[in-house]
Amino acid sequence: MNQRVRPEVAGPMTGSVKSGTGVPLNYRSRISLALNPGYACYVPTPQFRLGGPLPTIAYFLGIAVRMFFNDHDPPHFHVRYQQFRARVRIEDGQIIDGRLPPTVTRLVKEWAILRRDALMKNWVAARTDGQLERIEGLE
Questions:
Q1: How far apart are CA 120 and CA 99, in angstroms?
Q2: What is the DSSP secondary-structure string of 76-91?
Q3: What is the C-alpha to C-alpha distance for residues 54 and 66, in angstroms, rounded to an integer?
Q4: Are 13 and 24 in contact (CB under 8 A)?
């Protein structure tokens, strides 16, 4: 358990170096690992990258826009605003699922249409494990 595991042979994230419990790590444990990589054994999986599972690609007017690595089709991004969350289609800015206040929905749709090319570039980069770029907001 004390040896580092290479990403290409990694399995599910379990246990820690100090405890050696072998218990599957939950979401909070994974975030803790990202913030304190020396504390526990970090085993990368396709669903999790060091630095957080959802990189923030834009932040404006209190709206956080994030994108998963290796996410499923259709091309989309994730939006968080206060206690609201939604997945939004890149093509037309429509909400796929989740809920946002009407004003935020309108702003996100307008932003997505204006930044469609940059969003698609990030989508392709996320699908190929590339580097995601920050995208300018509406301000």
A1: 23
A2: EEEEEETTEEEEEETT
A3: 6
A4: yes
Distance of CA 139 to the CA centre of its chain: 23
- Does residue 58 register a pLDDT over 80? yes
113: left (phi over 0), alpha (psi -120 to 50) or beta: alpha
Burial of 26 (0-12, 13-18, 19+ CB in 10 A): exposed
Provide the edge-to-edge strand list for the sheet that holds 63-66: 56-60, 63-66, 76-81, 84-89, 95-99
Going 121 to 126 to 130 to 132, the CA torsion angle's sign is positive
Q: What is the mean pLDDT of the chain?
A: 73
pTM comes to: 0.62
Distance separating alpha carbons of residues 107 and 118, to the nearest angstrom: 17
Find out whether 17 and 43 touch, Cβ atoms under 8 Å. no
Kindly report which listed range (43-47, 123-127, 129-133) carries the lowest average pLDDT score: 43-47
Residues in Cβ contact with 32 at an 8 Å cutoff, skipping those fewer than 6 apart: 39, 40
Contact 56, 65 (CB under 8 A): yes
Question: What are the residues facing 114 on neighbouring strands?
Answer: none
Q: Which of 101, 98, 104 is nearest to 86 (CA)?
A: 98
